[in-house]
Write a structure and sequence with these properties.
Blueprint (H helix, E strand, L loop, with lengths): L2 H8 L8 H6 L18 H4 L12 E6 L8 H5 L6 H9 L3 E2 L5 E2 L7 E3 L9 H5 L5 H4 L1 H7 L3 H18 L8 H18 L6 E8 L10 E5 L18 H13 L4 E5 L22 H10 L2 E6 L2 E2 L36 H15 L7 E4 L26 H6 L11 H4 L5 E6 L4 H9 L3 E4 L5 E7 L12 H8 E3 L3 E2 L4 H4 L5 E7 L7 E12 L2 E11 L34 E7 L9 E9 L2 E2 L1 H9 L10 E2 L2 E4 L2 E3 L15
Parallel strand pairs: 1-4, 4-5, 8-10, 15-24
Antiparallel strand pairs: 1-11, 2-3, 5-6, 6-7, 8-9, 11-12, 12-23, 13-14, 13-16, 16-19, 17-18, 17-20, 20-23, 20-24, 21-22
Helix pairs in contact: 1-10, 8-9
The structure holds zinc ion (2 copies).
Length: 648
């Protein structure tokens, strides 16, 4: 890889003449697929067990696994001219210049970061902006030079959408273009990787959306030095199974990787549907393959939360959180399908385990930004938009919409400040963070640095979390988030129900904690059920044993100043909880949700700055939260009636 490429990429875009040499190089064939031997699932990769010394020293690290620079064609169409370099520097804590021409800086920088530019025609806008290229002379180049950046950008995006739909890139854009841009991006990931301080990964986004139904996945490589020559784009295939084949071939060569789907909420039911891409019912092989390739799911980002909908979970009064039940195609509200949402997928996964012997939806949780401005300011009090010039000022964020005909009003105000990911890892380096992701010892955050712990075991003492070194004991005798609670022997199982040890520390830059909840789902005779249990309450309060809820703690937000109650909420919460409704014969999952006291939503802060009322399309306050990966319980084969069961 030639270093002059990254030097050019690091500098201001548009003026560089480096594309001239790129243009001269001859077109190459698509080299994604080389003949390889039979693929074998690596069982060790999906095991939740740890080997070697107890992992008591695991620390929490926070990162963003989803970000776009001007090298994503849509971002460029939104007026983003900031190179990938800006995104890295902001994430690690530098002060950088926003597209809106003001400085931004995170109050609390990230520990790790992945730039996931769209693989489809990656870098095409940079090429079309270079006067020495063929693309510059085409209407695409003209659109990008339109002094009316929003109008020109919209035409550029429409043209690319048509090209992407047809699967044929415009004249002047070749595989060699992709290869050159991708190599430069990989080199940048290497440049910014600083083990022990700030870890970066080579990554891209595969942006499949057949009929506008979102199936996007972010692809992450453990080792940037081993990545393939070309990313895999939706123009190669819109089927996730074909993406998995690409990933499996790389793993067979020793290039470990994973794909993280996002925005189930915009998939029109397609994300967790019970059939494969050809309409055939999900098989055990499909389930194993999917979970080998996609052990995590992005629970939240700028374009909303994919946990559940209030109508699917009427007893969950906290389900209405940063929802965006819209079509990614029309940007209109569409009727929501259960197969778009994580909690429903977890429940149907249990049923699949009973019927086909394997669970296709046994994934852990993480969060991302999906910022398209090279500047993901995910802190609620520090949000500066997510779509470059479309929402770079408070006024645009209050009133703007994306430039598509028929799009919903006030779309910009509906955007979230975006999520981040937490991992419990053995160190801040690629190997340790990737390993944490593989074993699903991860959690999603709505953009706060709450640190949650979650363990399950059969022999936890009732006061476990009150003991010193309790985490050591929990690791030694239980399993952490993302793991499997193995069934007990027949005689033990008759009288025991499992215990769950949970704790959380507040984010010092956000609000105090309000409650810890455990969300349980299970199946019985083919029926799928769920229940939300509060297990720890702030301010020393106790959970009501009948309603399983904490009393309201009275925390308030002043909507004129955004000041919050200074005497309500807790800095830390912990509990050891026993499932009161446990049935050892029924498969179940449990995940933790930790809620803060309410704070002003970013849109309320913008409204205050502008002296206008907060937008009426969103709530004025939000309760920031984290969601841990679940712990699954699968009954023994005997309890399942001797049916076939694949341990995952
Ligand atoms: Zn996407
Ligand atoms: Zn994205």
């Amino acid at each position: 890889m030639e270093s002059h490429l990254s030097r050019k990429l690091l500098g201001p875009l548009g003026a560089a003449g480096w594309l001239t040499s790129l243009r001269r190089q001859e077109k190459l064939h698509l080299l994604l697929v080389a003949a390889l031997g039979t693929l074998v699932f690596n069982a060790a990769l999906v095991s939740s067990a740890w080997a070697g010394a107890p992992p008591i020293d695991r620390k929490v690290y926070f990162g963003d696994t989803h970000a776009h620079s001007a090298y994503s064609s849509d971002a460029f169409g939104f007026g983003n001219r900031l190179p990938p370099d800006t995104a890295y520097r902001l994430a690690r804590g530098d002060k950088v210049k926003h597209v809106g021409n003001y400085s931004v800086q995170l109050k609390s920088p990230l520990d790790f970061f992945m730039l996931t530019d769209h693989a489809e025609m990656i870098g095409i806008a940079q090429i079309a902006s270079d006067p020495s290229t063929i693309l510059y002379q085409t209407s695409l180049g003209e659109d990008l030079r339109d002094p009316d950046q929003k109008a020109g950008g919209a035409r550029f995006l429409n043209a690319l959408q048509t090209a992407a739909g047809s699967g044929v890139a415009p004249d002047g854009y070749s595989n060699e273009s992709t290869r050159t841009i991708w190599q430069a991006l990989v080199e940048l990931a290497e440049l910014y990787n600083d083990p022990g301080h700030f870890t970066t990964f080579a990554a891209f986004e595969w942006s499949s959306m057949p009929n506008g139904e979102n199936l996007h996945r972010n692809v992450i490589f453990r080792d940037a030095q081993k990545v393939p020559d070309l990313p895999f784009s939706a123009m190669d295939s819109t089927k996730p199974e074909d993406l998995w084949t690409y990933l499996e071939k790389q793993r067979a060569r020793g290039n470990d990787n994973l794909a993280i789907p996002h925005n189930g909420n915009m998939s029109n039911g397609r994300m967790f549907q019970p059939v494969d891409s050809w309409g055939a019912p999900i098989s055990a092989e499909y389930a194993m393959r999917r979970m080998e390739n996609e052990p995590l799911f992005e629970m939240m980002q700028l374009k909303g939360t994919s946990e559940t909908m209030p109508s699917f979970a009427p007893e969950d009064e906290f389900a209405d959180f940063e929802l965006l039940p819209f079509s990614l195609y029309t940007w209109q509200r569409v009727e929501q399908q259960k197969t778009s949402y994580v909690r429903e997928a977890y429940k149907s996964g249990l049923r699949f385990q009973e019927t086909i012997g394997a669970n296709p939806f046994k994934f852990g949780l993480e969060g991302g930004g999906d910022d398209h401005g090279s500047t993901h300011t995910w802190e609620e009090f520090n949000y500066h938009g997510g779509h470059a010039v479309l929402d770079s000022t408070p006024k645009d964020r209050m009133t703007g919409t994306i430039p598509l005909e028929g799009a919903a009003k006030n779309l910009n105000a509906r955007m979230s400040a975006g999520g981040i990911t937490g991992v419990w890892a053995d160190g801040n380096n690629r190997e340790a963070i990737f390993a944490a992701m593989r074993r699903k010892e991860t959690f999603a955050s709505s953009g706060v640095k709450i640190a949650p712990r979650f363990f399950a075991g059969w022999d936890f003492p009732p006061d476990l979390t009150a003991q010193t070194n309790w985490v050591r004991k929990a690791y030694a005798t239980g399993v952490p988030m993302g793991g499997d609670l193995e069934p007990q022997s027949a005689q033990q199982a008759a009288s025991t129900s499992p215990s769950f040890a949970v704790s959380a520390l507040r984010d010092p830059n956000s609000a105090p904690l309000q409650r810890i909840q455990i969300i349980k789902g299970w199946t019985k005779n083919g029926e799928m059920m769920e229940k939300v249990y509060d297990v720890a309450c702030s301010d020393g309060a106790k959970v009501d044993p009948n309603t399983h809820r904490c009393p309201a703690n009275g925390a308030e937000v002043n909507l004129k100043t955004c000041a919050i109650s200074s005497d309500k909420g807790s800095a830390a919460l912990a509990a050891t909880w026993k499932d009161p409704d446990f049935d050892p014969s029924l498969p179940a999952f449990y995940y933790v949700r930790v809620l803060e006291n309410p704070v002003c939503r970013w849109s309320t802060r913008d409204a205050i700055a502008l002296g206008v009322p907060p937008p009426d399309v969103v709530a004025p306050v939000i309760q920031e939260r984290v969601w841990t990966s679940p712990i699954w319980y699968t009954p023994s084969r005997e309890k399942l009636g001797g049916r076939k069961l694949v341990r995952q």
